[in-house]
Amino acid sequence: MCDCAVALGAATARGATLFGKNSDREPDEAQPIRALPAAQHPQGSRVACTYIEIPQVRATAALLGTGPFWIWGLEQGVNEHGVAIGNESVFTHEELELPGEGLLGMDLVRLGLERARSASEALDVLTHLIEAFGQGGKGWLHKDVAYSNGFLIADAHEAWSLQTSSRRWAAKRIERLGSISNHPSIGSDWERASEDAERFAVERGGWRAGRERLDFERAYRSTRLVTRALSDGRMRRSRALLEERDGHLEERDFFRLLRDHGENAAIPKSSDPHDESYFTLCAHNDVQGDTSASLVVAMDRRVCWFALGAPCTSVYLPLYVEGRVPESLCRAGAKPEPDSAWWRFKQLQQAVEEDFAARLPRVRAAFDPLEEEWLRWPDEPDSASARMQEAAARALETCDELLAGLAP
């Protein structure tokens, strides 16, 4: 479960597109940084995704993202051309069966980042792959569930919402502000759709022929496996947070949005999964899972911002597609590792969750000044490796100091 948000230049303080995403996964599913270089590939070669192989392209772009340690694909990322993509699980009447295999939504995120130089080109890449190879395969480490996906795609000039059901899809251009969550959220205002989207919905009984223009959400959305409470409130909340800062949005606002625990709530406050307030943008619950990694990108800068673990108990690190990302940020597997940044931030998250009200303010008092300092850093890719090393070292030192201070 996840949330994505975007603000185009007209809605931001500097006139630059802002993109953000939280990746919500199973609580102990490590999600390290992935730094993938640009590469050339032999003609006719193939690429092994998580479950299936597909034809490779001749050249793939450099990118930076995060993804579950056991999956080939990515939950979220940005490439050297300034294209950002994130995905969401969505549940439709066309339920995907196991052990059927296809491309995971995470595979599609990585493929789009590797192959596209713009948001519109990424939309073309994803829709072609969805129609050609379908979606499928187990999408969680410990849950035998397959799902379709929604995607938010952005570059410096435009953004698209892409909602899917297996091989069917609809896409809508975002004009100013937008967000998506864990349900198909495009109605009849789609700009592009697969040729069979309406016919298939009619054949399956989700839409009546001759009715008004196809409403993709009404025709395809299913609440059999997940209730509306899971994502409706989160999407309203993310859009409200964007709208209240419309025209003035900057990175700090996206940090705040992705750390949000609900209106007038510093910490998660509901224990009732039937209550919308149980499901927050920064996730800490047994149904939605935990936020495992977070990304914020400002398209007018080369720096991008990644938080490992829940962003409320972590710090947004300034990282660059150029340069060498510190190895500790890229290391994380199935079990805790002392030299893994993800696992150290996860340990801090778990300590804070023992007494959120008392401990979260202490964490923010330590991490917020670091973010403010890094936000003032000049955008100097030539020193990217050194800057990333410095920021990672200071963040991990602060994390360890907090852990020592919270120890009984």
Description:
- The chain is α+β, with helices and mostly antiparallel strands and 408 residues long.
- It has one domain: 4-Layer Sandwich (Penicillin V Acylase, Chain A), CATH 3.60.60.
- Helix content is 29%, strand content 23%.
- The longest helix is centred in the last third of the chain and has 23 residues, at 384-406.
- The relative contact order is 0.14.
- The mean pLDDT is 95.
Topology:
Elements: E1 2-7, E2 18-25, E3 33-36, E4 39-40, E5 46-48, E6 53-55, E7 59-60, E8 63-66, E9 76-79, E10 84-90, H1 105-115, H2 119-133, E11 148-154, E12 159-165, E13 168-174, E14 177-180, E15 192-193, H3 197-203, H4 216-220, H5 232-243, H6 251-258, E16 284-285, E17 289-298, E18 303-308, E19 317-320, H7 327-330, H8 341-353, H9 356-375, H10 384-406
Antiparallel strand pairs: 1-2, 1-14, 2-17, 3-8, 4-7, 5-6, 8-9, 9-10, 10-11, 11-12, 12-13, 13-15, 16-17, 17-18, 18-19
Helix pairs in contact: 1-2, 8-10, 9-10
